Amino acid sequence: MENKVTKIGVLTSGGDAPGMNAAIRAVVRTGIYNGMEVFGIMRGYSGMIENDIVPMHSRSVANIIQRGGTILKTARCKEFFEHEGRKKAYNNLKKLGINGLVIIGGDGSFRGAHKLSEEFDIPCIGLPGTIDKDIAGTDFTIGFDTAVNTAVEAIDKIRDTADAHDRLFIIEVMGRDAGYIALHSGIATGAENILIPERKTDIEELVNGLLEKERRKKLVNIIVVAEGDRGAEDVAQVIKERVPAADTRVCVLGHIQRGGAPSCMDRLIASRMGYSAVESLIEGRHNVMIGIVNNKMHYTPLEKAVKAKQKISEDWLKIVKILAS
Ligand code: ADP
Ligand code: F6P
Asked: Is the CB of 77 under 6 A from ligand 1?
C-alpha cells in the first residue's frame, strides 16, 4: 500500500505520566526510520492552536527514555473543546503539511483527537498515557506501573512508622475516577481496607471492622483510599468520631505519583506502543488507540476508546477482603 502519511505530529496531552518521553522517542525514531518528517507539538492541543510546533530529529529525543514528565510539555486546553479552536489547530497542521498525528494522553485527549479526525479527516493514533489505568482496550497504560510502585514504596515506609506507634493510617492515592492505583498498591502493601470509586464504600462495615480489630488488639491498620472515592480527610473524620481509641493519621501522596523515572515496564510498553503507532499510520490503520492485551498489540477505534472504561473485577475485591483479615 502507498505510504500516504509523510509528516507526522506527536503531542502529549492531559495529565503527564512517567514513560511519555519513552513513547515520544519511539514515535520520533520509528517515523524517521520510515523516511517521515516528525514534528513535536508543544503543550498538547494548546501548541497545536498556537502553532508551537517544532521539527524533531533523532537526537532531539536522546537521553530522555529514563526521564519522567514530558519534553513536549502537556496542558489542558479549553479552546480545543470548540470547533473554532480545532479548526485553527488543523490549519496550522495543514500549513506544515502534517498528515498524521500521534496523541499520547488519556480518554479526554482521545475525545479531542476523535473530534479532530472526524471534522478534518486527519488520521489520529492514540497512545494511552495516564497513571490512572482507566482506559479500556489495554491491560496497562503508560505511567501506571511507575505510579503504583511509587505508591507502594511510600506506603511501605508509612507502615514502618505506623507499626512503631501502633497507629491507623489513611493514605490517599491518585485516581480521580478510577481505583486501580488504590487497588494494586493496597493489595501489594497488605492494606486492611481499600476504598475505590467503583464500589460504594459501606462506612458502617468499615467502622465495625475496625472496632472488631481493636477488640483483637490489631492496632496497625493501613487504609488506602482513592482520591475519587471520598478523600482521606473525610474518612478520617468518621473514624476519629466512631473509633476514638484509634490513633489516626492521614497521608495524601499526591503528585509524587506522577513523577520520577519510568519503570522498566513503562519504558517497554511506551516503546512498543510508540513504534506501533507509526506502523499503524503507515499501514492505514487510522483513528485507533494502541493498547497491549495479553502481551499483544491491540487496536481499539478511538470512538470506542473514549466511551469504555476498564472495569474492576469482583475477584480483586474478594482478594482484598480475604487477605486482609
Ligand atoms: P486526559 O487526556 O488525561 O483524560 P483531559 O480530560 O484533561 O485529560 O483532556 C485533555 C485535553 O483534551 C483537554 O484539555 C481538551 O483540550 C481535550 N479534550 C478533552 N475532552 C474533549 C472533548 N470532548 N472535545 C474536544 N477536546 C477535548
Ligand atoms: O489523570 C491523572 C491524574 O493524576 C488523576 O489521578 C488526578 O485526579 C488528576 O490527574 C490530577 O490532575 P491535575 O493535578 O493535573 O489537575
From this structure: yes
Shared-domain flag, residues 239 and 267: no
Enclosing domain of residue 85 = 7-143+262-307
* C-beta pairs of 240-247 under 8 Å, 24+ apart in sequence: 242/207, 242/211, 243/168, 243/207, 243/210, 243/211, 243/214, 245/214, 246/167, 246/168, 246/210, 246/214, 246/221, 247/165, 247/166, 247/167, 247/168
How far does the centroid of ligand 2 lie from the alpha carbon of residue 15, in Å?
6
15 Cβ below 6 A of ligand 2: yes
Query: In tens digits, what is the pLDDT along the chain, a chain of 325 residues?
Result: 454 899 999 999 999 999 999 999 999 999 999 999 999 999 999 999 999 999 999 999 999 999 999 999 999 999 999 999 999 999 999 999 999 999 999 999 999 999 999 999 899 999 999 999 999 999 999 999 999 999 999 999 999 999 999 999 999 999 988 999 999 999 999 999 999 998 888 899 999 999 998 888 877 799 999 998 788 999 999 999 999 999 999 999 999 999 999 999 999 999 999 999 999 999 999 999 999 999 999 999 998 988 777 788 888 888 888 887 6
Are 229 and 181 spatial neighbours (Cβ–Cβ below 8 Å)? no
Are 63 and 138 part of one and the same domain?
yes
Whether 322 maps to a domain, the answer reads no
Amino acid at 214: E
Residue 198 C-alpha to ligand 1 middle, in angstroms? Answer: 22
Asked if 268 and 127 sit in the same domain, the reply is yes
Q: Is 227 in the pocket of ligand 2 (CB under 6 A)?
A: yes
Residues annotated as catalytic are 132
